[in-house]
Specification:
By secondary structure, the protein is of the alpha+beta class. Helices cover 24% and strands 45% of the residues. Strands 1-2-3-10-9 form a 5-stranded antiparallel β-sheet. It starts with a helix and ends with a strand.
Length: 233
């Protein structure tokens, strides 16, 4: 009887050891990996790094990217005022895509710029004490004094702003000289060129082209875009 009890106890203990051993083996297999799987195989190649940097739906860096170059998927610049030798711009927002910087300079696959050309910049270009201001229905008004036929005449011209050959242009639709109608009609052709706006936005990288312009309360809001734009040396 006693020997039977001991035998049963030994069989139970042996079975428990087998169960514990199997459980430990399963846990070890799940938590570990084959030898050599986690071995460091050296730094990733440039091609692997470029592949990892890609985001679904966005282009990756160029295949020929040199070791001393840096590629940025996109780059945004906000500036309250940008002053160049030829112009002043306000509220400038520039967004570059596919920007590469290196020893040869800085370039972008695509660049968009939104900026405001203040009215006083265009007025100074017209001269004659001109004042440029917004008018109804998205138009603009030019007020200045013009010398014609030996007389100084106050002229008020209003027209719609458009883009022509990359320039900001306003051809007057109405010209008021403050005199009788027949007099105004006769002299309007003479003074028209003095109140016509033809403004080129200077100081921006070459390759940008003016696409659209609207009249706002503080100036002309211009939208420019370009491809393969060189941003600087």
């Amino acid at each position: 009887m006693k020997s039977t009890r001991i035998r049963d106890w030994l069989i139970g203990a042996l079975g428990m050891l087998v169960i514990v051993g199997v459980a430990a083996g399963v846990l070890w297999w799940a938590a570990s990996s084959p030898a050599g799987a986690g071995t460091d195989s050296g730094p990733p190649s440039p091609a692997d790094s470029r592949a990892d940097s890609r985001v679904e739906g966005q282009p990756g860096p160029p295949a020929g990217l040199a070791e001393d170059e840096v590629w940025l998927a996109d780059l945004t610049l906000d500036a309250g005022t940008v002053v160049t030798a030829g112009s002043t711009l306000r509220d400038v927002v520039a967004v570059g895509q596919g920007v590469v910087t290196g020893p040869d300079g800085l370039g972008a696959d695509r660049l968009t710029v939104d900026a405001t050309v203040p009215f006083d910049v265009v007025a100074a270009e017209l001269g004659g004490g001109a004042v440029v201001r917004p008018a109804d229905d998205g138009q603009v008004t030019v007020v200045r004094t013009v010398e014609a036929l030996g007389r100084e005449l106050p002229v008020t011209a209003t027209g719609t702003v458009d883009v022509e050959n990359g320039r900001l242009v306003m051809e007057p639709r109405s010209i008021d000289l403050g005199g009788p109608g027949f007099l105004s009609d006769g002299i309007a052709a003479v003074v028209r060129r003095f109140v016509t706006i033809e403004h080129v936005i200077d100081g921006l990288p070459e390759g940008l082209e003016l696409r659209d312009v609207t009249v706002r309360g503080d100036g002309f809001r211009a939208a420019l875009t370009g491809e393969d734009v060189v941003l600087g040396p």
